[in-house]
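Sequence, please.
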């Protein structure tokens, strides 16, 4: 299979449509991003990387960080994580508060904002916020084997001043006793993890452990057990695209996690880690062209986990 020809073909097909969708404008710093950008990178488990388009332009990974923070929290708290957050798709938008009251402050899953805020609270345990942010940054540099990865402090600051809904979610959960640390501390870490800037190549490297039974084939390091990698993939498949998760599974058929920066990390277990980025979002807040590109990729590679 000629993966280079596949990614080149996808970019050529997407090019006339660059700019489609709507950039996230509720975070002022993200509203300024040029929507006419599109990048894709595939890294296979045998270590080859194939890129096309703007694959080396850094973007805000936003909610894709939730996969990596969950990995850290599982390492710290093990199955105890699931006492404080569920594993079911929410069927609601990423920043919804409605289910939280009925479900006594226990968020549906770790990939909606409420769930991710609880996960961040777990990672923060025993640390100062600055240390937890440092641990996350080190982890990402280690996974991608790239020390040039940084946090965009302007984006973090922008969210800090406008993240009213996240403050509401966090306060609500603290009221139910499901946050151990004060809201400002937890959200300080959460906004910084979301503001990590990575390009498609770096992100495809960072996700590789999930495609390779928990071990990063580039470094040989075991990040998580095969069982845990499988389970994180299951959560990405069922919950990684908020209330668009069912549609993404139907159209693409791969575990994936999106972010409002326009990035998507998709995992083809046993085969490859794929990162796409295009800032324009669809109605549910997932990259419009990114989702379509992955649909093309899955059909051209036959990589859907549901068969080809
Ligand atoms: N879907 C997302 O990427 C949301 C992340 C964003 N930082 C927020 O909390 O609103």
């Amino acid at each position: 299979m000629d993966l280079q020809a596949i990614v080149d073909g996808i970019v050529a097909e997407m090019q006339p449509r660059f700019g489609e969708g709507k950039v996230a404008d509720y975070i002022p710093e993200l509203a300024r991003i040029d929507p006419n950008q599109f990048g894709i990178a595939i890294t296979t488990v045998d270590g080859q990387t194939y890129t096309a388009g703007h694959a080396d332009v850094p973007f805000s990974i936003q909610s894709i960080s939730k996969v990596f923070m969950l990995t850290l929290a599982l390492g710290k708290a093990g199955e105890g994580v699931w006492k404080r957050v569920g594993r079911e798709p929410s069927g609601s938008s990423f920043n919804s508060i409605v289910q939280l009251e009925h479900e006594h402050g226990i968020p549906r899953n770790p990939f909606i904002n409420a769930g991710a805020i609880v996960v961040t609270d777990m990672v923060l345990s025993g640390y100062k916020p600055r240390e937890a942010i440092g641990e996350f940054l080190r982890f990402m540099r280690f996974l991608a084997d790239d020390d040039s990865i940084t946090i965009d402090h302007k984006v973090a600051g922008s969210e800090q001043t406008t993240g009213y809904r996240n403050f509401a979610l966090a306060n609500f959960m603290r009221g139910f006793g499901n946050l151990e640390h004060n809201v400002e501390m937890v959200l300080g870490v959460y906004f910084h993890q979301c503001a990590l800037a990575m390009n498609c190549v770096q992100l495809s490297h960072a996700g590789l452990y999930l495609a390779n039974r928990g071990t990063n084939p580039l470094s040989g390091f075991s990040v998580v057990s095969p069982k845990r990698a499988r389970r994180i993939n299951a959560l990405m498949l069922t919950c990684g695209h908020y209330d668009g998760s069912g549609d993404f599974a139907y159209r693409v058929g791969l575990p994936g996690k999106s972010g409002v920066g326009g990035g998507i990390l998709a995992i083809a277990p046993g085969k490859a880690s794929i990162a796409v980025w295009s800032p324009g979002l669809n109605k549910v807040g997932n990259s419009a062209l990114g989702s379509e590109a992955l649909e093309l990729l899955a059909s051209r590679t036959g990589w859907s986990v549901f068969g080809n």
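DSSP finds 14 helices and eight strands in the chain.
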